Amino acid sequence: MISKKVADRINLQIEREMESAFLYLAMASRMTDEGYEGLAAWLTIQYHEEMFHAMKFARYLQDRDASFEVPGIPKQELKESSVKAVFERVLAHEQKVTASINELYELALAEKDYPTQVLCQWYINEQVEEEKNAEEILRNLALLGDSKQGTFMLNIELGKRKPSIPLDFTEIGEND
Ligand code: FEO
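A: This is the predicted complex of the input protein with MU-OXO-diiron.
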């Protein structure tokens, strides 16, 4: 049985993952409005990945006989006025999520909750990928400079992204 302290902290993490999902969905909508369908497709896959992260935690809570509390997610405001600013926010956001996962891992260590430690290791690895993806996009944008043509090329490239996770949450299993 999982402790209430750890279960509450995982529910908080679920809220943060869902906030990430809705932030990326808001960004995807903005990119569509601006005509960048490829960037919108990339961000929509990111939305699905964040929901997967949330639901993987939810399934874990249920497997350990604890409740998953569905959070209320506030509207995600976007003030960024350029593609570069949007992806800078993606990176800054992922760095915050990494810190939050690390904090959960530290709690699991302090509580001697070994299964939660093992689960957190999956997320710790995932965050390396998440930060790397955002950094790569920013590096490419820096190489392209302010050129609209370059941003459009990146839009085509990122539009080729394929989901790396099952989009059907009923498929969440131990090996994901
Ligand atoms: Fe769930 Fe992008 O971290």
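The mean pLDDT is 94. The chain has five helices and no strands.
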